[in-house]
């Protein structure tokens, strides 16, 4: 099902480096029930970095 485009879940890891040389990693996951078009999109975002502003 997932290969045919009927999956209700997506996850991604995003990496960025600032102009100051700081590294950051964002883990993003979202989910939506593919059988219910009126269902909300829910998910989580986790940002990891060595320093905080």
From TrEMBL:
Domain Coatomer beta subunit appendage platform: residue ranges: 2-52
One Gene Ontology cellular component annotation held by this UniProt entry: cytoplasm
Origin superkingdom: Eukaryota
Pfam families the record matches: Coatomer_b_Cpla (PF14806)
InterPro entries cross-referenced by the UniProt entry: COPB1, COPB1_appendage_platform_dom
One GO process term, biological-process aspect: intracellular protein transport
Protein name in the entry: Coatomer beta subunit, putative
Organism: Ixodes scapularis (Black-legged tick)
Upper classification of the organism: Eukaryota, Metazoa, Ecdysozoa, Arthropoda, Chelicerata
């Amino acid at each position: 099902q997932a290969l045919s485009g009927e999956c209700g879940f997506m996850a991604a890891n995003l990496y960025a480096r600032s102009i100051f040389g700081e590294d950051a990693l964002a883990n993003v996951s979202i989910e939506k029930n593919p059988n219910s078009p009126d269902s909300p999109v829910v998910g989580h975002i986790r940002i990891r970095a060595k320093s905080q502003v």
